[in-house]
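User: Here's a structure from my thesis project, written as structure tokens. My advisor, Dr. K., wants to see whether a designed sequence matches the one we expressed. Can you design one independently, without my sequence as a hint?
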């Protein structure tokens, strides 16, 4: 009996990978880290799950302003800090969105 030859071409590597069982099964859900990840500049990364309509609205706002979507989110947060009226409206909308 001869030992299988090591993969040489990309096709051989793909064939070997397709017939070799995975060492660990893939996970469907990735759990968040217990602490918020920090970037080198001291900022904290925060993930928000949006429905397609809200995602589109955010992207259009960012496109119209020629800025990244994260800049729009930061501006919206700043508006709630600076304006009690907007903050109150956000509270009302957030309560209705549960």
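Assistant: Designed independently from the structure alone:
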């Amino acid at each position: 009996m001869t030992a299988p030859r090591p993969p040489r071409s990309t096709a051989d590597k793909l064939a070997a990978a397709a017939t070799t069982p995975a060492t660990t099964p893939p996970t469907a859900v990735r759990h968040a880290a217990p602490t918020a990840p920090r970037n080198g500049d001291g900022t904290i990364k925060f993930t928000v799950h949006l429905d397609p309509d809200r995602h589109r609205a955010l992207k259009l706002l960012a496109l119209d302003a020629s800025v990244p979507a994260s800049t729009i989110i930061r501006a919206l947060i700043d508006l709630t800090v600076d304006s009690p009226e907007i903050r109150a409206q956000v509270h009302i909308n957030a309560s209705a969105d549960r």
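When you compare it with your expressed construct, this may help: Residues 52-65 form the longest helix (14 residues).
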